Amino acid sequence: MGSPGCEYSALYIRHPQADTWGDEVEDIKPPCSLLGLTEISWPGVYLPRCDKEENPWETPASTAPPSRTPELNPSTSSQASADMEAQVEECPLEQVQTMVVGEVLKDIDTACKLLNIAADPLDWSCVHVQKWLLWTEHMYRLPQVSTVFQGQAGKDLCSMTEADFRQHSWQFGDMLYAHLDIWRSAAAMKECSPPEDDESAKGDSWSDMMSNYPSQPIHLWQFLRELLLKPHNYSCCIRWLNKEKGIFKIEDSAHVARLWGIRKNRPAMNYDKLSRSIRQYYKKGIIRKPDVSRRLVYQFVKPV
DNA sequence: CAACAGGATACGT
DNA sequence: ACGTATCCTGTTG
């Protein structure tokens, strides 16, 4: 990393298919560069870009169908991009990073499906490694890197240092190393699974990222916790009364319901229906009413 | 009147 | 099958 002529840019994360850059890109790109997002605070994630070269993501050829997230379908896209824009404009760097990481995860997921390989590089066979290299080659418009690392399995790649990579590929070793690192980090994140994780002690960023990663549909309780973990944004509509005990209050029921509706693409969502779903958690032991029952106050049975 | 409780059913995965 | 979403009747503060 940090080799001369290279920097690392969040802009680089986006899926290469030029046609997947919709109008949204106009919303995201300028703020990202303005923020000088050159590295995202996600262990091991560096996003290579060579200076003053046209964006290699804009590969004209396309082997993948456009990957749209359900969140960005037509009925909510304007809202979503408006939200995004608002976040980018007035929210801290971490918010932008969150969005960016979400995109990375989606792209990895897409690649996995396309290539029919595991998300975790450690599980790759030699054939999988070659597939991944071909894919990366295509993404970055690299000349024939796939011949290197012949006969190496994912495990082998993962045990190699950046210097090893550079030995294999004089020019693109560090780039491939960084790219592999992204995959490994993503796999590591998926490892420590969402529910009742102690890993979420890592902070908002982890759950933020998972919330942007729609491979598994988000659960209502996760969504509520997510809002609660971003008090700077949502304390007006939901907040902790006692974080240690997991007791929280919904201050603006309509607002929370609307947010939930947006997330699930359920325009007709309201608090009546949302609260019914919360009540389903009673017998599952996920959420309950606190000992002293109060209006719009609930309690996570298992606090964070 | 809005929140609450919980049954019944539909729906998407 | 699971996790809601939707609709509903009845209760409570």
From TrEMBL:
It holds the Pfam family Ets. Interacts with the DNA-binding domain of the androgen receptor. Interacts with NKX3-1. One of its GO terms (biological process) is negative regulation of transcription by RNA polymerase II. Belongs to the ETS family. Residues 218-301 form the ETS domain. It comes from Betta splendens (Siamese fighting fish). InterPro entries: Ets_dom (IPR000418), ETS_fam (IPR046328), Pointed_dom (IPR003118), SAM/pointed_sf (IPR013761), WH-like_DNA-bd_sf (IPR036388), WH_DNA-bd_sf (IPR036390). PROSITE patterns: ETS_DOMAIN_2 (PS00346), ETS_DOMAIN_3 (PS50061), PNT (PS51433). Keywords: Activator, DNA-binding, Nucleus, Transcription, Transcription regulation. It is found in: Nucleus. GO terms for molecular function: DNA-binding transcription factor activity, RNA polymerase II-specific; sequence-specific DNA binding. Residues 72-81 have a biased composition (Polar residues). Residues 59-70 have a biased composition (Low complexity). SMART domains: ETS, SAM_PNT. Residues 53-88 are annotated as: Disordered. One of its GO terms (cellular component) is nucleus. PANTHER family: ETS, SAM POINTED DOMAIN-CONTAINING ETS TRANSCRIPTION FACTOR. This is SAM pointed domain-containing Ets transcription factor. Residues 103-187 form the PNT domain. Its main location: nucleus. The keyword Transcription applies.
